[in-house]
Specification:
The protein has about 80 residues and is mostly beta strands. The chain has one domain: Beta-grasp domain (Ubiquitin-like (UB roll), Roll), CATH 3.10.20.30. The structure holds FE2/S2 (inorganic) cluster.
């Protein structure tokens, strides 16, 4: 059975498709977009992105669907960085 694919809109304006459970970094690279990294264990926040307005740390989470809507990605604008 095929998994449902959703469209994902990256900050560089490219749009690709994703399946739930895929790796954020792999999918970003395929879209020619680099997610910043730091600790890679979920502690530093360097990799944070906003997914439909909700902050996610891609180093510790795979892609999750949110209400089965397409995903809009933005870099988190963290005032502490
Ligand atoms: S790289 Fe540090 S929280 Fe993701």
């Amino acid at each position: 059975m095929n998994k449902k694919k959703l469209k994902i809109s990256w900050p560089n304006k490219l749009i690709t498709t994703v399946e739930e459970g895929e790796d954020w970094f792999v999918k970003a690279k395929m879209a020619d977009f680099e997610i910043p990294t730091g600790c890679l264990i979920g502690k530093c926040g360097a990799c944070e992105i906003d997914v439909n307005g909700e902050t996610v740390r891609p180093c510790i989470k795979s892609i999750e669907y949110r209400n089965n809507t397409n995903l809009n990605i933005e870099l988190t604008n963290d005032p502490f960085w």
